[in-house]
């Protein structure tokens, strides 16, 4: 299927590694003109070069922390009129006892997982509406559908973003601007491996035992390839999805058992 986004300009936050990289690659394969935003210059350079070699499409990048005002400004300056925006703060979620979190801790998580995305959305939506094309996808997490103990700080911020987006989409859909969220489960990324190693250390067990337990509890019986997320995101950015907006799409191999 031709997704109809060749030549469209795209910002992919957290685009140098993991799910962000997979999104960037999927968009570039469709001919989109991708700008990566992430913190580490060397990783950005390697990723941009690799995507260019594979797709033949030029990839731009900017070293920026999108959880800060300066980073967001630099990102927009690098691609001032995007048709596509993938928000993904690149901040690993780690468990914490809510009783130990300070007001500043809560504020930090809100800045990273809610406010940063909203500020980027606010910056790009007017231009998208004027051009009558915009696709925004937020990379969230499947656990917003079934919150887990120890992650109140992370889930609350992501749920706040989902609530805000649910209102915004009804204002902008008439201009062919859509906003959706992908809520991935266990994808085989560096971030997942780091988290599972940390979990094993806290539980006085082995990494292999943790992996076996996670796979056993996933109906798909495996971790997902990051490109499976990237390809889904690319479809949500396509010309064909102009009537689909405000959705939080779980992509977790059947772990979530709810109907809605």
Provide an overview of this structure:
- The chain is α/β, with parallel strands linked by helices and 260 residues long.
- The chain has two domains: 206 residues, Rossmann fold (3-Layer(aba) Sandwich), CATH 3.40.50; 36 residues, no CATH class.
- It contains eight helices and seven strands.
- The protein has a seven-stranded parallel beta sheet, sandwiched between helices.
- α1 runs parallel beside α2 and α1 packs across α8.
- The longest helix has 29 residues.
- The radius of gyration is 18 Å and the shape is globular.
- The model has no long low-confidence stretch (mean pLDDT 94).
Secondary structural class: alpha/beta
| CATH class category of the largest domain | Alpha Beta
Distance between the termini: 28 Å
Mean pLDDT across every amino acid position: 94
Helical residue percent?
40-55%
| CATH-defined topology of the largest domain | Rossmann fold
Described by strand count, sense and barrel closure, the largest sheet is: 7 strands, parallel
General form: globular
CATH superfamily of the largest domain: NAD(P)-binding Rossmann-like Domain
What is the number of helices?
8
Instruction: Tell me what portion of residues adopts beta-strand conformation.
Output: 5-15%
User: What's the count of strands?
Assistant: 7
| Assigned CATH architecture of the largest domain | 3-Layer(aba) Sandwich
Number of domains: 2
**Order of neighbouring strands in the sheet with most strands:** 3-2-1-4-5-6-7
């Amino acid at each position: 299927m031709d997704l109809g986004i060749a030549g469209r300009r795209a910002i992919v936050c957290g685009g140098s590694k993991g799910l962000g990289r997979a999104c960037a690659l999927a968009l570039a394969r469709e001919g989109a003109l991708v700008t990566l935003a992430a913190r580490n210059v060397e990783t950005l350079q390697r990723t941009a070069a690799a995507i260019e070699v594979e797709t033949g499409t030029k990839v731009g990048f900017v070293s920026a922390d999108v959880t800060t005002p300066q980073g967001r400004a630099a990102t927009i300056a690098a691609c001032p009129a995007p048709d596509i925006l993938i928000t993904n703060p690149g901040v690993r979620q780690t468990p914490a006892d809510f009783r130990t979190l300070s007001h500043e801790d809560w504020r930090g998580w809100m800045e990273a997982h809610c406010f940063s995305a909203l500020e980027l959305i606010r910056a790009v939506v007017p231009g998208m509406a004027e051009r009558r094309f915009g696709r925004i996808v937020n990379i969230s997490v499947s656990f917003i559908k079934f919150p887990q103990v120890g992650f109140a700080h992370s889930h609350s911020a992501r749920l706040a973003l989902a609530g805000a987006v649910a209102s915004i989409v009804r204002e902008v859909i008439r201009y062919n601007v859509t906003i959706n969220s992908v809520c991935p489960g266990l994808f085989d990324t560096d971030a997942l491996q780091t988290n599972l190693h940390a979990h094993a250390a806290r539980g006085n067990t082995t990494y292999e035992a943790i992996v076996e337990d996670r796979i056993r509890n996933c109906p798909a019986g495996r971790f997902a390839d990051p490109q499976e997320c990237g390809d889904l995101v690319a479809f949500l950015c396509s010309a064909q999805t102009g009537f689909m907006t405000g959705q939080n799409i779980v992509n977790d191999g059947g772990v979530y058992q709810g109907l809605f």
